[in-house]
Structures are given as C-alpha cells and as structure tokens.
Amino acid sequence: MLVLAILVGSCNAPSDNALYREWRLQKYNCIATSSYGLTQVNEKFDYVLQFDNTGVFSCTTDCNTISGKFEKNKSALKFSGISFTELACDDMMVERSIVFNLPCIKSYEITDDAILVLKDDKGHILMELISYDLPDESLCGKWRLEKYNSIVTITKS
After folding, report:
1. How far is CA 112 from CA 18, 29, 115, 131, in A?
2. 101: which DSSP letter?
3. Does the first or last residue of the chain, that is N or C, have fewer Cβ atoms within 10 Å of its Cβ?
C-alpha cells in the first residue's frame, strides 16, 4: 500500500531533468489586460525559453533577449537577476509581459513531458509553453520511398 502511495505521489512531481530544455511560448498573461486570462502567441513569432542545469535561463524573442538565474526545488521555481536587451521592436507587448511575469512565477508543472505551465503564488497561470524539441507532427508517420538512385521522391502514406 505504501509503494502505491509513493508511485501516485510521484506522478505529479516534475522529474529533475524535465525542465532543462527549450520551451516555446504558447500563451501568456498579458500586462495590457487586468485579468488572468491567457493570450495566445501569434504563430509567426518565436519566443523560446531555455533552462540549463547550472541554474541559468535565457529567453530569445524575435527582437530581444531576456536572461538571468533560476532556482527550482521540486515544483517551486524562482527567477532572479533578470536582465534584457532593449532594442526597439514593432510589438514589444509579449516581451514586456514576459519580463513582468518572470519575477511573479513561484511554481511550475510539466504535463505529458511536453507542456510547461508557470504559475504565481496563488496558482494563476502566467505562461504556458510547449517543449521546443517535439517533432513536427506533419513529419510523423510512415513514409514510402517512391524512387531511388539519383532522383528520390518521398511521399507520406
């Protein structure tokens, strides 16, 4: 019975290494709104948050870079020493929201080893990111080689 309780309890805790990778921002708490509703990131923009195992993070945007340190303990997460470049960009609302939200983040959760949810101390979701190293689904599946030698045509089956 004790073994079952340990297994069930460990299912929700992120593994030590699961955070250390690149994450693509999908949704964020926009500082231009007064609610905790999340805003979808435009797919043509690429905001990538990367954690390394030395406690350093970086976030690249289409214009600027945000970086600093982070500490994690089980599901607790704290950002510090946040710095960023300040190039003038066409639309900086997402970048400003990230810089504003990072110090407010107090915990994280990783679901299905692919979705990173960052929350404040009250459990409000401030950012939702997807693992950047997931394969493109349009490339998944079975492929059949149509021709070979010097000219190759590949079609998805």
Report:
1. 11, 22, 7, 10
2. H
3. N
Read off the pLDDT band of 3 (50, 70, 90). Answer: very low
Assess whether pLDDT exceeds 50 at residue 63.
yes
Tell whether pTM > 0.90. no
Q: Is there a contact between 113 and 100 (Cβ–Cβ < 8 Å)?
A: no
* The two three-digit tokens of residue 151, written as one number: 């000219």
CB-based contacts of 82: which residues, under 8 Å, 6+ apart?
66, 67, 68, 99, 102, 103
What pLDDT, on the 0 to 100 scale, is given for residue 147? 57
Instruction: Give SS3 for 63.
Output: coil
145: CB partners within 8 A, 6+ apart:
152, 154
- Residues 26 and 48: their CA atoms lie apart, in Å, by 10
Return all residues near 111 (Cβ < 8 A) that are at least 6 apart.
Answer: 117
